[in-house]
Structures are given as C-alpha cells and as structure tokens.
Known about the structure:
Helix content: 40-55%
EC number: 3.4.11.2
Cofactor: Zn(2+)
Bound molecules: O-methyl-L-tyrosine, zinc ion
Structural class: alpha+beta
Radius of gyration: 28 Å
Number of helices: 27
Distance between the termini: 27 Å
Enzyme class: hydrolase
Family: Belongs to the peptidase M1 family.
Protein name: Aminopeptidase N
Amino acid sequence: MNKPAGMPAPLIRLADYQPPAWSVSDVDLEFDLAIERSEVRARLVLQAGPDPQAPLRFNGEGLELLEILLDGEPLPAGRYRHEHELLTIEGVRHGQVLETRVALAPAANTALEGLYLSGRRETGFLLTQCEAEGFRHITFFPDRPDVQARYTVTLRADRERFPVLLAGGNPAGHGELENGRHWARFVDPYPRPSYLFALVAGRLERISQDYRTADGRDVALHIWAEADVIDRCDYAMDALVRSMRWDEQVYGRNYDLDVFHVVATHDFNMGAMENKGLNIFNAKYLLADPDSSTDEEYLHVEAVVAHEYFHNWSGNRVTCRDWFQLSLKEGFTVFRDQSFSADMNSASLKRIQDVSTLRRAQFSEDAGPLSHPVRPAQYREINNFYTATVYEKGAELVRMLAGRVGPQAFRQGTDLYFERNDGRAATIEDFVGALGEASGIDLSPYLAWYGQAGTPRLQARGNYDPANGRYVLELAQSTAPTPDQPHKKALPIPVRLSLFNADGQAQRLRLADSEQDLGTETVLELTDQRQRFEFTGLSQPPIPSLLRGFSAPVVLDADYAPDQLAILLRHDPDGFNRWEAGQQLALMAYDRLYRGEDASAALQAWTEALADLFAQPDLDPGLLAELLSPPSETELAERQVDIDPEHIHHLRHQLNDAIAARIGLPPLLARYQALAAASTSALDASSQLRRRLKQVLLGLLSRLDAKVAIPLAQAQYATAPAMTDRLAALTVLLNTGAAEAGPALADYRRRYADNALAMDKWFAVQARVPGAAALARIEALAADPAFSLKNPNRVMSLLGIFARANASGFHRADGKGYAFVSHQLQVLDALNPQVAARLATALNGWRRLESGRREAAHAMLRELAARPQLSRNLAEIVNRILE
Length: 883
Ligand code: 0A1
Ligand code: ZN
C-alpha cells in the first residue's frame, strides 16, 4: 500500500480544476470478504462528461485485476491499459456498464487506507477508510468528490468469522449462503462521493437506541465495538442523541436514513470518519468510562461524535467539489461542533480552549514553511492537508462570517446553502454566497481570508484627549510573507470591543459623526491596511477590551500598560477576554524575562490580580484554572527567532513560580485540600471543573515546594476515584522527578495492561516529561514490548507527544532527538505513510531554532529527503519543510 515516490508526485492545482471526463451514476459493489484476500466486483453505470470522445481514466491503486467487462462482454487486453495507478479505456459510451473484479490483501495493509484489518488476524475485524483517496484502493473508480453516485453494496463472508456485516445506507436484505457463509445488502438512496463509502465486517457487539427525528423518521442508532470495550460506549450514545437534537433545533437538520451505525476501532489514522450512515471512530474518540478516561477525553468524545454526525449535512448531503474546498466541510463542521460543545458546557471555557488550540497548533503551523491558506492552491498529497489551518482556522472564518451577518441571517444563510446545494459538490463561494444572499451583505471581501496564508498582526494604538473626551483608536494590519505568497492583502478584520474605565466599568460607546448609542460593546470592521475610529463622550481615558471572544484569528499587538491589563483581568465580564488579559500580561512578563529585562511590573500586575481572583470564593473554578495557566511553550516560542526550547521551558516555569509564590503556600494548600476532600468520580460539569482546578493547584504546589506536593500527589494517585485525578497525580510525580513515580507507573501498568487507550496515556505521560533525560526514557519506551509502530495511537502517544509536545526534550542541543525521530520516521513510513508525514510536521519550526539546533535539524531533514524510498506523504512534508 505504500507508494514509493521514485520521482516527486505531481503538483495538483486548484487553478487546473476540470469537471470529470467520465463519471458514474450508479455503483453496485459485491464483496467476498476474508482476512488475507478479499474480492470486489464493481458494476458502474458510466456517464459521459463534456467530451464523450475523451478516454475513460479511472483510479486504482494496489489492485489485482481479475476480470474486466463492458456491457457484460469481457474486454480484450488491447482495449484497456492498467498502468501508473490508472485504468484507461478508449471508446466507451454514455450509459455503458463497466464491470471489474479485483483482489485485495486486507491483512497486509498497514497504511490503514482502503480495506484493512483492525486487530489481530485471528480475532480482528475488517473495515475501510476512504477519505480522501482510499476508494481507489478498493476498486477502479473516478475517485474524486465531484463524482456522486447511488450505491448498492452486497457483502458476503463466513458467518462464524464475520457475524456482523455493515455498510452505509439502509439495509436491503440478508440471508444464508452455502458453506457457512452469509450475505447482507445495503442501499443508499442519496447520491454520494466515493470517499464516504464504508464497510465493516467481523465480531462486534452493539448498543442500540431508538430515535425519532423532529420530522418524524424512526431511526435505529447502533454503536458497535469489540466485546471487551462495548461497555464503554454509553457516553457516546448519549452524545449522539444530544447532537441529533441540537442539529434539529439549531440548524433545522434532520437525519435521513433508517439506521445510523457508529463503529469503534483501535487502528485508525485520524480521529474519526463521517461515512454515510456508518461513522467509524478511532476508539480514543468513542470509548469513555471514568476509571480509564479523563474529563478532557469525555469532552473530546462529545465533540467528535457531534462533529461526525454534523457532517451528515455539512459534508455528506452537501459535499466538496474538489479537495481544495476541504474546509467547506471541515471548517464549517468544526464551527458547528464547537458551538454544540459551547451549548453543552461553559461557552467561555470552550472558547478559551479553542483559541488555545488554535494558537498552539494553527498559529505555529502558519509561522513555518508548512503554512498554507485555508483553501490551499496546490498539493501533492491531499492527506497532508487535514491540518489545523483547514480545520481550526477554517472554523474561525465561519465564526467571523456568522458574527458579521448575525444569528438570524446566518441560519437563513445556512438553510439556503443546504437547500441549494443538496446532493451537489459545492465550493467555498457557494457557502459564502448563500450567507451573503440571505443577509444582504456583500461578504466577498471575506473570501480573501480563504486564499491568504499567514496570521495577520493587528496593531492597536489608542489616544485619549481629556480636553474633548475623545478617544482615537488606530488599527493597522500586516501579514508577514509566507512560502508562495510574498505580498499580502489587507483582510476584513472584525474587532469586537468594549471600553472600560479605571473602575472596570464598561462605557457607553458612540462614534464621532454618529448620534447612535452603540451600547457597551460594538464591532469595528477594519477593511484597509490602517483605519482610525474615534469615540466621543468619554470622561476618563478608556481601557480597550479588544477582539472580544477572539473575534478574528489574528495576533494582537496593543500598547497596554500592565495596570490596564490588570483592570481587564479583574473586571472584564467576558470570561474569554478576562483570560486573554491575563495571557497578555504573562506574555508581557515573558518578553521581558526573555530579553533579560526587568519584568517585575508585568509580573506584579498579573500575579496580584490572580491572587485576588484566587481569593474570590465565587469565581468559576474552571475559569480560575485557566487564569492560573500561562501560555504554552509553543505559544511562547512563536514570539522568538533563534529559539532555545530549554530556555523557554525554564522561563515558563518562572511564570508558574511567580503565580505560586504570590498566592502563597497556605492558600494553595488549603484550596487543594478542600477540593481533594470532596473528590468524586462524578461527571457533571462542576465536578469536572473542580478537578481541573485541583490539577492546576497541585502543579503550582509542586513548583513551590516539591516536598509538600509529592506526598499529596502520591496520596491522590492512590485514592483517585477516576482517571483524571490519577493521571494528574502521576504527571506531578514524574515532573518532579520523585522516586515515587516508579511504583505509581508500575501500578498503573498492572492495572491497565489490557486497556489500550489507558496504556496510550501511560506512554504519553512519560513522553511529556521535559528535560535532558527525556530521550533516554523515550528510547527505552520505544523498545518496550507494548510499543508498536503499527498502531497510530501508540505512535502518537510516544513519538508524537515527544516530538510535538516536549520541546525541551526533543530539541536537544546535541541533535540526538532528531536522529532518533528520523530513524523512527523511516521505519514508520514503510508501514504507514500518513502517520509518518504527520509526525514529521513536528519539524515545521526548524528554521527559527537557534543556530546549533537549526544546523542539526537541517542536516537530519536533508538526509531524510535524500532517502530513495520515502512515501509521497512524507516526501511532500520533508521537501516543503526544507524549501
Ligand atoms: N473527515 C474526517 C477526517 C478524516 C480524514 C482523513 C481520514 O483518513 C485519511 C480519516 C478521517 C473528519 O473530519 O472527521
Ligand atoms: Zn470533519
């Protein structure tokens, strides 16, 4: 299944888009399934494109062609060619039926794309993954999303070995065959692209629930998993039902088949997949129980279940014309799942977490050579574009559009979009156009956001004139050049703002030349490079609270004084901007510490405000936990060139130390103990938030006085009622280097030896431990019999965490971290190119490292690029990083 590159894969460009020369209206698939060798018969009704004389060229990779017929007649060898992963036939006619029979080897498929085996040969089950271009590994087909066809799928297999047979669509019969075999048929009434095809076959258990849609359809919901984990699916079912209701209520979208299947697998390259009627999930995002899942994992399950379900409309009923439009379904669906989670939990905490993720994953992606627009203009390997930019920044763009048109017009716009494009393969213009039409607002300037890479910087400078009570806010934007885009345009940037006085009161807003009272919050739209906005009627110099709710995905550069930010941190009623003020203060302190300057003013303003907030008994514990957490090392590193990750790691410690010292040991301890005494495994939101605060407090205590914190962590580990507390305790034991960490790790391993997802966390928690000893620990773990390069979750838990979330451990000055990962990458690439490519993105920032590390990383990348056997996936990433 691996695709040796040989020569570089061709560059595919958005500008070259052409509708398909030959399309397919009806697909009839028959599978004879077995672990080692399966056979697929496909009957395709051909549809001519604009030129009926054009040759038919269908994709097909790794297929053993057994038979080929046209209108029932075998095609002679001279009538077709099968080379370079294409099947070419000249002289076919509209309406003819092309029939092929091919053989596949599922058990040998380690790339986990196409038809493959999950688990062991003796006990595992078969499943498929087709997005983006996996269907061509199953049969010959025009494997592109603008070919939409009606599918009938028949599965045949040994009943004993494969008692459960599932495919997307409605069930359309099943029965017995000779020799202990059986069959099942499925028909999907909705035309759909090939990437949404799926089947599952094997020994699986299920939980089920009946559901009636708002428009009156009775749907059977089934969640399937292997017997040992089926009792961990209840939360996913609960989340599914809530997602379905929410989409009915908020977007007016109903489910449209009689059955909805969800299946969990431990062997999956990504999070989950929205196949029509048959969602397939990485078990990590479906299974949950208090004993082995953290609170954070519960939130992920809720979000991913919703995400995949929401794709049924934003993705399946309306799909993408081509893969350049990927964010049409992904950005919109992430926005939808974010809104759902915000409605289910605390909206401001959700916003804080989403913005943190964006900054950590997307801003850093955008700051290196892998930077690309939300709608990329070109790619060599589409699987490399399932990125934070397409997903998370894409969601921010939808959020901006939604904010611009307002909630009512947004709903009218999405209704129009779904209605007009139902059953079609659409573009981003179709989406933005529908919102524009429904709202009567020209949104076309926002299209520039989709085509322009890089994170804009928004500069804000304020000037107050006490003589006339006027405040002039000057806003200016700039975006640094990115690969392929040396010149950047001005983008429309919505700046939601309030103005506060020194007592922390929001002022009424009135713009000069206008009589209108805008209330205490308004949105300014910066459309040019630079604009001035003048507010009148202010009796005191105002403190601007800018980009409230993070109204645009930009980096803000405002000339705040520490005291002004401290006022926002104490008083801003908007939870997000209150947190943001604290982050800005932390960054101000960090910048000074980094430059070796006096940081005391910023540190003092920040920690004093935090200590006061800490003392407020009624402050939401979840918000407090976030307030007490400085920006991540990745975010801090964004601010520098010549990065020394170890230095940054130490500076971040100093920020934590400053918070801990200011609050002081007795209050921290008292609060921790109060929370610990009330520990339960309850999953309600408030219990979760208190656990989160407890975890942050234990971390601060460990900075302040390890001798106090270690016994607390040890006790917390021993008595933890649920995984969140257990893992938090283990983290502190490991990070403090406590001798007690060893027995705790051994205990954890004994307890969870048979639980793959819990063992992933055992690897991850160790992979995250910073510092010089990290590499030796990782090497030992990579040699552990429980480690396997064949399982993507295990790979990401150890190597992914090490390379992407342990900067001080990975970016060693001696370059040995790079050498180790390079070796692993080469072995991994031969097994699973998608996962290898994802791991390699950890080196995106190499150019901004200090010179010694830069040289070492550069040498490693050049050496890797020179390897002859690299997959197309890894080759593209390494070459783009090197460009
Ligand atoms: N569409 C899925 C993500 C996905 C993409 C590619 C995959 O295999 C290469 C698998 C899943 C989603 O957004 O959930
Ligand atoms: Zn998605």
